[in-house]
Design goal:
Elements lengths: L1 H11 L5 E6 L3 E7 L3 H4 L13 H19 L4 E6 L36 E6 L16 H9 L1 E9 L1 H17 L8 E10 L5 H5 L9 H14 L3 E9 L5
Parallel strand pairs: 1-7, 2-3, 2-5, 3-4, 5-6, 6-7
């Protein structure tokens, strides 16, 4: 039933994806959204997958591949890590990714990033990494990262496609359109580098406070909404000398 619904959805709101060639004549920055144990490692916490998941595994593999490539080229990388204080719940979700626990750390396939000089790690305590980058003095770590590195194209991967990834992309597009992120010109969401979680309807009906969250359906919706906000949705990402985005 779910697969039939997803196919119906895709027919009603088709999502055109593209192969994106990233120019090597300008700076592209890579943003990794919440690729941490608490969301991606089986059994790691309240919001972690209960069993191995192909979409999540594929997202980790593609994100790690891109991260290696960006580090080899010494291009800027920013990793958001969901990290919450026990006394500050994030409704409507149960406690998750508590500061100081392994839930809030990068997955094993990406832990090496902590030692790379071109990588910025930003712990955040909200869905949206843009707002989670605001410091007490009003400055913004993400904005400063874009400006300092003169980033013209942003490549976004991570979890969850329809929640933290989408929220970040929406805020970034709004800020870009208001001239707050110069010289940023393009925001690209790589679909194969994103994933979301799965809560079947029958599980949600038997779990107090839970909402149904069919994975493929919500992944498609998240990507579609990001494109509605002006982001480019890529099903392939390559580096090349010519600007094709």
């Amino acid at each position: 039933m779910v697969s039939q619904t997803v196919e119906l959805l895709k027919n009603e709101i088709p999502l055109e994806q593209e192969s994106v060639v990233l120019s090597e004549d300008s700076v592209t920055g890579l943003v990794l959204v919440d690729i941490i144990n608490g969301f991606c490692t089986v059994g790691a916490g309240n919001l972690a997958p209960r069993e191995s998941n192909r979409q999540i595994s594929g997202m980790i593999n593609e994100s790690a591949r891109l991260a290696r490539l960006f580090c080899e080229k010494k291009l800027p990388v920013l990793a958001f890590l969901d990290s919450h204080h026990p006394s500050k719940p994030e409704d409507p979700y149960p406690p998750h990714c508590i500061v100081g626990t392994d839930e809030s750390n990068l997955v094993p396939a990406l832990r090496w990033l902590e030692n790379e000089t071109n990588v910025t790690i930003r712990r955040k305590d909200c869905f949206d990494g843009y707002f989670g980058s605001i410091e007490e003095d009003g400055s913004n770590v993400f904005e400063d990262w874009v400006k300092k590195n003169k980033i013209k194209t942003l490549l976004v991967v991570g979890v969850c496609t329809d929640i933290c990834v989408l929220d970040f992309v929406c805020s970034t597009m709004s800020a870009k359109n208001h001239g707050l992120l110069k010289p940023l010109e393009n925001v690209v969401v790589y679909s194969q580098g994103c994933a979301t979680f799965n809560v079947p309807l029958e599980v949600a009906r038997n779990t107090k406070g839970a909402l149904a969250h069919p994975q493929e359906f919500m992944h498609h919706v998240g990507l579609y909404m990001a494109k509605e906000r002006g982001a480019k949705i890529a099903n392939q990402v390559l580096f090349g000398a010519e600007e094709k985005i």
